[in-house]
């Protein structure tokens, strides 16, 4: 037991460093870019011309219908066969961004569609353009509904970044694998990694609850004014 505790204490700085330098930036960048892709894809599907909407539907179908690990392998190991060579981190960033974009597009499409048509009519009646109505009226209301599912997607992404180890990104999980290769103690190292992911997920879940309460109060304020 003392040996295991010593090993955990010795390995913790390396694991936390890998999480800080690779896991956290990869998560934040992938989610921010994926959310942007998802918003554009959702708007195109709802309001765009039929050919573009069909392309977006095909993209969402492909991404949602194939495993994330396979997508990462296609980008990192498959694209070099056609002359496109990417480093591990950019390949992981592209893979996670496309994956998050597909799933968030469905969330955003649903929440925009849930806003009553009367809100569009009210916005147009006071002289707003389509873009102004979307930015000032529709998206703020949709955001309140989208917080829980988008938060869940973000928390899942934190854990999914462990798959980047498969394409040699030196993030948290691969850092543990390297320590296991020299210490020959897979059980205790992988338990430690699991506890770190659990701590991160718990912190994010607590923040999600606070964010939902904040948006709930904002939504109640809007309803009271209306």
From TrEMBL:
Gene Ontology molecular function terms on file: transmembrane transporter activity
Gene Ontology cellular-component terms listed: ATP-binding cassette (ABC) transporter complex
Locations listed in the record: Cell inner membrane; Cell membrane
An annotated GO BP: amino acid transport
Domain called ABC transmembrane type-1: residue spans: 20-208
Main subcellular location of this protein, as a coarse class: membrane
Any Pfam family hit: BPD_transp_1
Annotated transmembrane regions: 15-46, 187-207
Keywords recorded for this protein, A-Z: Amino-acid transport, Cell membrane, Membrane, Plasmid, Transmembrane, Transmembrane helix, Transport
Organism superkingdom: Bacteria
Membrane topology qualifier: Multi-pass membrane protein
PROSITE patterns linked: ABC_TM1
Family: Belongs to the binding-protein-dependent transport system permease family. HisMQ subfamily.
NCBIfam families membership: HEQRo_perm_3TM
Protein's name according to its UniProt entry: Amino acid ABC transporter, permease component
Lineage: Bacteria, Pseudomonadati, Pseudomonadota, Alphaproteobacteria, Rhodospirillales
């Amino acid at each position: 037991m003392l040996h295991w505790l010593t090993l955990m204490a010795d390995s913790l700085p390396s694991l936390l460093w890998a999480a800080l330098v690779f896991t956290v930036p990869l998560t934040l960048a992938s989610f921010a870019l994926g959310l942007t892709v998802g918003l554009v894809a959702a708007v195109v599907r709802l309001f765009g011309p039929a050919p573009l909407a069909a392309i977006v539907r095909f993209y969402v179908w492909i991404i949602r219908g194939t495993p994330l690990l396979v997508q990462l392998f296609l980008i990192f190991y498959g694209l070099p066969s056609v002359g496109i060579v990417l480093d591990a981190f950019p390949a992981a960033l592209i893979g996670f961004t496309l994956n998050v974009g597909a799933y968030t597009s469905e969330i955003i499409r649903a929440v925009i569609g849930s806003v009553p048509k009367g809100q569009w009519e009210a916005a147009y009646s006071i002289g707003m353009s389509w873009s102004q109505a979307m930015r000032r009226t529709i998206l703020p209301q949709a955001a309140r509904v989208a917080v829980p599912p988008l938060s869940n997607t973000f928390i899942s992404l934190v854990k999914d970044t462990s798959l980047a180890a498969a394409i040699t990104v030196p993030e948290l999980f691969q850092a543990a694998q390297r320590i296991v290769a020299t210490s020959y103690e897979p059980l205790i190292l992988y338990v430690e990694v699991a506890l770190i992911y659990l701590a991160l997920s718990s912190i994010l879940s607590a923040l999600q609850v606070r964010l939902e309460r904040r948006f709930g109060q904002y939504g109640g304020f809007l309803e009271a004014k209306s």
